[in-house]
Write a structure and sequence with these properties.
Length: 222
């Protein structure tokens, strides 16, 4: 019994010290790690293949190319879109095309919304961690907060304590009045650069789900 007491005390002290973590310091550490990682990521261009499901049926596949411009801004560009819906003739076909274009625009806006949670500025990170509830679970740092980018949204993140880089994000947000839920997963290149791998978005107002996969990461030619 006496041998167990020191172990119990150590566990309790560990929990207390972690609960009292300096949020500002964590935000600065994560922000610095993210900034260094982003510098490496800016050397790449890549594509994202997105499958759009409506009522659980594949309706559209889009290919979006990503690169950073001279100012450091991430620029998405849709380079291809293929639909599984057979085009109808005449006016019905024209109306169908217009509806498809509206869907594509909605999809790009939803994917753009996900980028606002995927790439956050130092100020946004500081604000997030200031609001967040921070815990440790299964060897990772977890943080969750509401009212992050828009009123009543929610962002949950999982951080690798060794690198202080994000390995997973989950958010619930809005496009206008339409709710959007997203899950963002990350992985690491052999050189240590963390990058996005998959994006899953649910948009119940449109009965739509998007499953996006990042691919063809290539170091840009200078």
């Amino acid at each position: 019994m006496k041998k167990l007491i020191p172990v119990v005390i150590m566990v309790i002290l560990s929990s207390v010290s972690y609960a009292q973590i300096d949020k500002d310091q964590l935000a600065l550490t994560v922000s610095k790690a993210e900034d260094q990682n982003l510098t490496k990521l800016k050397e790449y261009i890549w594509k994202r293949s997105s499958q759009v499901m409506v009522d659980n049926q594949l309706k559209l596949t889009t290919i979006t190319e990503f690169s950073f411009d001279a100012t450091g801004k991430l620029v998405p560009k849709m380079v291809d879109a293929k639909t599984t819906v057979e085009k109808k003739p005449g006016l019905r076909g024209a109306a169908q095309k217009s509806a498809a274009e509206d869907k594509a625009d909605y999809i790009e806006k939803a994917l753009g919304l996900s980028l606002s949670y995927a790439f956050m500025t130092k100020g946004e990170l500081m604000d997030f961690f200031d609001k967040a509830t921070i815990t440790e679970k299964d060897g990772f740092i977890e943080a969750v907060a509401t009212n992050v980018n828009v009123p009543n949204d929610r962002l949950f993140v999982k951080i690798d304590p060794k690198t202080h880089l994000f390995i997973y994000k989950e958010f619930s947000s809005f496009m206008g009045k339409d709710p959007v839920d997203g899950k963002l997963s990350y992985d690491k290149f052999s050189n240590g650069t963390m990058h996005g791998t998959t994006t899953v978005l649910n948009m119940p107002a449109q009965k739509m789900k998007i499953e996006g996969t990042n691919q063809d990461y290539t170091i840009r030619v200078k």
